[in-house]
From TrEMBL, chain A:
It comes from Zafaria cholistanensis. This is ABC transporter. The lineage of its organism: Bacteria, Bacillati, Actinomycetota, Actinomycetes, Micrococcales. SUPFAM superfamilies: P-loop containing nucleoside triphosphate hydrolases. SMART domains: AAA. Residues 26-256 form the ABC transporter domain. Pfam families: ABC_tran.
UniProtKB/TrEMBL annotation, chain B:
Its main location: membrane. It comes from Zafaria cholistanensis. This is ABC transporter permease. The chain crosses the membrane at residues 38-61, 96-117, 129-149, 155-174, 195-214, 220-239, 251-272. Residues 85-269 form the ABC transmembrane type-1 domain.
Length: 277, 281
């Protein structure tokens, strides 16, 4: 494995081959989602109004089952909202949206294809062979899977599979990168390294990032703003309970006092007693 | 910057290196395993032939009901000498392969269509289910009436027999493809035929092959049915013809040939299956 990648310099292949798409803004307008019909109807999300600035990294935090993934799926066009709409760069999302790319909680790689072919799956439709090959090479280098490009997903570790999944998402040159707890199933050490990698990737591929997470520290470390979803006792369905702007340049000092205060406040808003954790 | 995940690479690289060294030993072990399997598999057939020989030499059964193994071999030699044996085997194998090929292709195509499309399922599902409920031999009189006693009617019957096992396995397997994988592929803009060939068909390869093997067995079954009823050539014809002439030796010969050829075609398909399953699963 080589460490030739220079973080500060833009990647030559990236600039030669049409360059990454620029980051796009995302707007939620009165978004709601309910499942079921009649008396079995259950509201998961309601009244989501929020604007994500192009290039911003927004973490979506909330207790499990509060609709974080549902919100993300609405942006990707994998799921249609019951109310309101999602706008990307001012136009509404209708069906699977080519401006987004998703990395899921599980890597979801095709088990019968090599890491390389899996990454290539993310290339936008109609990408030429030479251009696609160059892009895939570049991304495999970026996520440092060069030595394992010909391996099958079952032959690599969980962390490597998640890096391949991230590379596949980046292959799409997304204007909006949607990350659905992509590091949630990894061990603590690998998770920290993946968080560093994400910051690294952001320097090369300037996309707007929506990151669903249940990890308060991850949100504080990575996000420009944190959007907290929560329920009120009187109404069904979760909505935005808080929006926090996280101060400081990344990578942030994990021991900073200000972040520690925000951490306590966030844990409290999630219903956890921060003095015990 | 520190290399993210660099610690994880040593493990996989180590196993890749040891994989190279282990292959020779593994190949030797698998050869021994193969020899052991062949040896064990031969025990029962050899014992059966011995028992058969004993039954005829010791006169337990009359030579008319059960001729000695040697006279079956002799019958084979005689038929082969006249060139009839090769013709019977050739035409039967040809019918099975063509019928199986047509039935498998149609089963794969329709199974994919009905397994993937809710519309096609609603439209075609009940009809195909009803046709499946017809015992396939019930088609014989109709096929003969329509297509006369030629190759077409036999091949069609075999194709019908091969169609349903494949249709059913493909249809059911497609319903159970990992929804997460399909969703991931859809999120990357794959749809329709491209989604089918990239995700859904590879995911059902193991199921398709178990369907193909069932279908091949069905093809031989329907071959004999077709040839017993109406034919002038083939192993099924050899069976009825020998029954009519009281040639038990040729009858036994036809049965043994069906067993051996059926087993060989199944084994060949099994080899392809193992290759495909390691490639796709």
């Amino acid at each position: 494995m080589t460490a030739t990648f220079a973080p500060a310099a833009p990647h030559p292949a990236g600039s030669a081959t049409a360059g990454p798409r620029s980051a796009l803004g995302v707007s939620f307008r009165g978004l709601g989602r309910s499942f079921g019909e009649g008396t079995a109807r259950r509201t998961v999300l309601r009244d989501i109004d929020f604007d994500v600035v192009p290039g911003e990294l927004v973490a979506i935090l909330g207790p499990s089952g509060c609709g974080k993934s549902t919100l993300l799926r609405a942006v990707a066009g994998l799921d249609a909202p019951s109310a309101g709409e999602v706008l990307i760069d001012g136009t509404a999302v209708e069906g699977i949206d080519g401006r987004c790319a998703v990395a899921f909680q599980e890597p979801r790689l095709m088990p019968w294809q090599s890491v390389r072919r899996n990454v290539a799956l993310g290339l936008p439709h109609g990408t030429g062979k030479a251009e696609g090959d160059a892009r895939v090479d570049e991304l495999i280098d970026l996520v440092e899977l060069g030595a394992h490009a010909s391996h099958r997903p079952r032959e690599i570790s969980g962390g490597m599979a998640q890096r391949a999944s991230l590379a596949r998402a980046l292959a799409r040159r997304p204007g909006v990168l949607l990350l659905d707890e992509p590091f949630g199933a990894l061990d603590a050490l690998t998770r920290l390294k993946m968080q560093d990698l994400l910051l690294e990737v952001r320097r090369v591929a300037p996309a707007t990032v929506l990151l669903v997470t249940h990890d308060v520290d991850e949100a504080l470390q990575l996000a420009d703003r944190i959007l907290v979803l929560g329920r009120t006792p009187d109404r069904e369905g979760a909505t935005i309970s808080e929006v926090l702007t996280v101060p400081g340049e990344r990578p942030r000092d994990r021991a900073s006092a200000e972040l520690a205060r925000m951490r306590s406040a966030l844990l409290e808003s999630l219903g956890v007693d921060s003095h015990r954790h | 910057m520190a290399l993210p995940g660099a610690h994880t690479t040593t493990k996989a690289e180590g196993s890749a290196a040891s994989r190279g060294g282990a292959t020779a030993a593994a190949r030797r072990a698998s050869r021994q395993e193969l020899a052991r399997r062949i040896g064990l598999g031969a025990v029962v057939p050899v014992a059966l032939v011995a028992l058969w020989q004993a039954a005829s030499t010791l006169g337990w059964v009359s030579a008319v009901a059960l001729p000695a193994p040697a006279s079956v071999v002799e019958a084979a030699g005689e038929l082969a000498g006249r060139g009839e044996l090769g013709r019977h085997i050739g035409i039967s194998v040809q019918r099975v392969l063509i019928g199986f090929g047509i039935g498998a292709a149609l089963g794969l195509a329709l199974g994919s269509l009905v397994g993937l499309s809710k519309w096609a399922d609603a439209l075609l599902g009940p009809t195909i289910g009803a046709f499946r409920a017809v015992p396939s031999l019930a088609w014989v009189p109709l096929l003969i009436l329509w297509m006369k006693i030629g190759e077409d009617s036999k091949v069609t019957l075999i194709a019908i027999g091969a169609f349903f096992p494949i249709f059913t396995t493909v249809y059911l397997a497609l319903r159970h493809v990992d929804k997460n994988l399909v969703e991931a592929a859809r999120a990357f803009g794959l749809k329709g035929l491209k989604l089918l060939t990239t995700v859904q068909l590879p995911a059902v390869v193991p199921a398709v092959f178990s369907g193909l093997r069932l279908a091949l067995a069905q093809s031989w079954l329907f071959l004999v049915a077709a040839e017993l009823i109406a034919s002038s050539m083939g192993l099924g014809f050899l069976l009825t013809d020998s029954q009519n002439n009281g040639r038990t030796d040729r009858l036994l010969l036809a049965i043994i040939l069906l067993a051996v050829i059926g087993k060989i075609t199944d084994a060949l398909l099994g080899v392809v299956e193992r290759k495909a399953v390691t490639r796709w699963a």
